[in-house]
Amino acid sequence: MNIAVLGYGTVGSGVVEVLKTNYKSIAKRAGEPIDVKYVLDLRDFPDDPIQEKIVHDYNVILNDDDVKIVVEVMGGTNPAYTFVKQALLAGKSVATSNKELVAKHGSELIAIARENNINFMFEASVGGGIPIIRPLMNSLTADEIEEISGILNGTTNYMLTKMSEEGAAYDDVLKDAQNKGYAERNPEADVEGYDACRKIAILTSLANGRQVDFEDIYTEGITKITDKDFKYAGKMGKSIKLLATSKCENGQIYAYVAPMMIGQEHPLFSVNDVFNAVFVKGNMLGDTMFYGKGAGKLPTASAVVSDIVEEVKHIHTNIKVEWQPEKLELSDMKQAVQRFFVRVKKTCPQSEVSRVFGQVQFVSVDGLDDEYAFVTGAMKEAEFDEKIAGLSGVITRIRYTQLSAE
Ligand code: HSE
Description:
406 residues; 14 helices; binds L-homoserine
C-alpha cells in the first residue's frame, strides 16, 4: 500500500517515523506493508533520507493511481481543504490531524468519501494520541451521549497546573510554556480557548450526528485567571481547569469552553500537565474517561497511523460516519444552570452579597486582606449576570462546577 504525506513538520515526520519503527507489526495489522511513496513539502531536507520522496507539486500525488491514501498533516484550512477534497474526489482515502479542517469542513468531506466509497478519518484531530473519535463512532453507539467534557488543550492545562501547584503568575507560566515549546509565540489559539473550541465542535457534531458550527460555541480562555484565584481554589480543595463541554439538559444542547473551578470528585480533577482527557457520559454506560497525550510528535502520529491502518483494511469500503451537514442549533449558554465563584472587594459588605444572592458560601484567604470570595447556589447564567450587575466591587467570577449532583 502506497501512501503520500502532505507536510513534513512535527506530525508529518512523526508519521514517517511511526511507520518505519513499527513497519512489521503495522503490516500485520493492516494485512499488507504500508510504504510512504511521496512527502509533499515546500522545503527540501538535504540531510534527511526523506529527501528522495519529497515532491513540491501536489499534482504528482494526485495523478499517481498507485497512491491510495493521502495523509494531510499540514494544519490550517488553506490549502489543506483544497488538497483533501481533490484527493477524495480522485478516489483516495484521507487521514488528517487537522482540527480546523475537520471542524469547518468535516461533514462535507465525510459525504464526499461516502459517495466515492472511500474514507475520511481524523482520529488525531481531537486529543492527539487519545482514541476518542473511533470510540465515539464505533463503540459508544448503544448510548445517547448526555455529556462530553474534556481537557482538550495541553498547553493551557500545563499552565494551569503550574499555577495551581507552584502558585506561579499567569505571565510567568506562559513564558515557561513558550520556552518549553508548548505554547506558540502567539499563544492566542491556546490561551483564548479557540483550539479547544474546534475540538469540542468536532466531538459534539459526532455525538449528535449533525453539524455544530464552532462559531456558535461560547468560548472563554484562561487569560483572566490569576494566582489569586488559585489561592481560593486551593483553600477550597478545588482546581481550575479549562474545560470544553457539550451536554444535553432537558432536551437542550449546550456547548462551551471556559475555565471551571472543579472539585476532587470530578473525573477531570487529576488530569495535569500537558495531558488531555475526555469524560463521556452515556445514558446506558454511565461515566467513561479517555486519558493520554493530547499533542506531540509521536502520540499524534500514532493516531494518524491508526487511521491509515483502518483505511488500508477498508480500502474499498466506506465506514459510515454519522455527521450530517444539517446544522445543530445550540441553546443559549445564558440559560445553562451553573454555580459561580465570585471575588469581591471588602468595600462590598457580605450582607449585600447575601441580600442579592441568598445563601452563599463565603471564603477568605490569608494575605488577600482587601477582598473575599463567595460561591453561589445553582442558577441560570442569565440570572447570575443580572444579580452580579447590582453588586459593587466585583473583581472576577469563575464558573464553579459542572456536576449536576453537587
Ligand atoms: N496546541 C495544542 C495543545 C496542540 O496545546 O493541546 C494539539 O492540538
